[in-house]
Design goal:
Blueprint (H helix, E strand, L loop, with lengths): L3 H4 L4 H5 L7 H15 L8 H17 L2 H15 L19 E3 L4 E3 L15 H6 L18 E7 L1 H6 L1 E12 L15 E2 L8 E6 L2 E6 L8 E2 L12 E12 L8 E4 L15 E7 L6 E3 L2 E8 L1 H6 L1 E7 L2 E7 L8 E4 L14 E7 L7 H16 L12
Parallel strand pairs: 3-11, 13-17
Antiparallel strand pairs: 1-2, 4-9, 5-8, 6-7, 10-11, 12-13, 14-15, 16-17
Length: 393
């Protein structure tokens, strides 16, 4: 999550191309569209697309989380509305607030609220203003858990029913492979900040107000790194492309989301990673349709097979099975094959429902036509009247 000071300098709504009152679904739809267009895999070697991809990802990580979005909106609204504005000029800060404001004696640096904006900084706005409004501050502003990520995959119908494993390529903030996420140069370790004793927060009085604010020595992290890792500049995180093998459980349905704990964005300086949510799309099958754990299939049969009875082969997810069609079976009748549907996670499987449909030949040879005429004459002689009583008022 971007430090709150950086929030004031970024318009996440503009980055996603949505209005400030956009719904959660509109934000998600806009992010997915832009992520597909700007993904580094789709724009190899395009530095501008990669930079925009990072901005879009950061915007979604904030606006896609209801709590972070409220915090972001409140932060920008507070400063844009003139909070902490003094008599001086804007000093280059967005929203028109001044850098130094007098609170009952002594200069007060607004940038102090944000821990100086260092690489590991970024305090919780609730901590920053808790003291100002006489709310109890939180006990720590150490680096937070990484953001959750979303991905999509499309499966064949039968793979989704039986379960499978797919490989996903993700470009996202990940633990630095040099320092293994600690942020410290290999061979060294972070140490507890002596100023705040690892709390990440210090309290001080400014005139008539008491403030709880991020520790300036450790920038609110609770620890100090004397020798930062050269590859991640002490963050413990680098953006890289990684491949994740995702096990798709049996019976997954179209639109279902699968959660992979700890596979999202890495947290700063060894903080826990977020989760990865994979939305599964299932392609239609040319043979089967699905209803819960049951499968349905239409079976073409000849007129002779449903009149005389027959045993025919029926497709399943695992090969074919023999199905006995009783004599004089009506066209459109559905027969059940137990245990040949979609496997259940609890064990067993649903059923396969087979609907017989009479297939009419496009043409017949002379011998078949002659036999058919004999049959039609015999049918009438037996008194079979297929439309008897049909259409009577």
């Amino acid at each position: 999550m971007a430090p709150q000071r950086e929030w004031l300098e970024q318009d996440f709504y503009k980055d996603l191309g949505v209005a400030s009152d956009a719904s959660a679904d509109e934000i998600k739809k806009a992010y997915r569209k832009l992520a597909r267009e700007l993904h580094p895999d789709a724009n190899p070697g395009d530095a501008a697309a990669e930079a925009r991809f990072k901005r879009v990802s950061e915007a979604h990580s904030v606006l896609g989380d209801p709590a972070k979005r409220r915090e972001y909106d409140e932060t920008r609204r507070m400063f844009a509305g003139g909070a902490f504005r003094g008599n001086g000029g804007a000093n280059g800060f967005p929203g028109g607030y001044t850098r130094t404001t007098d609170f009952g004696g002594g200069g007060f640096d607004v940038s102090d609220l944000f821990g100086g904006g260092g690489a590991g900084g970024g305090a919780d706005i609730g901590d920053l203003f808790g003291g100002l409004f006489n709310r109890a501050p939180r006990t720590s502003t150490r680096p937070k858990r990484g953001n959750d990520l979303e991905a999509e995959t499309t499966l064949a119908f039968r793979d989704a029913a039986r379960g499978t494993t797919v490989s996903l390529s993700l470009t996202s903030p990940s633990p630095c492979t040099t320092c293994h996420g600690s942020g410290a140069k290999p061979g060294t370790s972070p140490r507890v900040c002596p100023t705040c004793n690892g709390a990440g927060v210090v309290s001080r009085n400014q005139g008539h107000f008491g403030f709880s604010e991020p520790c300036q020595d450790c920038q609110g992290t609770g620890s100090k790194i004397d020798e930062p890792c050269p590859d991640c500049a002490g963050n413990g995180v680098t953006v890289r492309t990684r491949t994740i093998n995702v096990r798709i459980p049996v019976g997954v349905e179209d639109g279902q989301r699968i959660r992979l704990a700890g596979q999202g964005e890495a947290g700063l300086r060894g903080a826990p990673s977020g989760d990865l949510y994979v939305t599964v799309h299932v392609s239609p099958d040319p043979v089967f349709t699905r209803s819960g754990n049951d499968l349905k299939v239409e079976l073409p049969v000849s007129f002779g097979e449903i009149m005389l009875g027959a045993t025919v082969s029926v497709p399943t997810l695992d090969g074919t099975v023999g199905l006995k069609i009783p004599p004089n079976t009506a066209d459109g009748r559905t027969l059940r094959v137990r245990g040949r549907g979609v496997p259940k996670r609890s064990g067993g499987a649903g059923d396969l429902f087979v609907t017989v449909k009479v297939a009419v030949p496009s043409s017949l040879g002379p011998e078949a036509l002659a036999k058919l005429r004999e049959y039609a004459d015999a049918e009438r002689a037996d008194g079979f009247r297929p439309r008897e009583g049909w259409g009577d008022q």
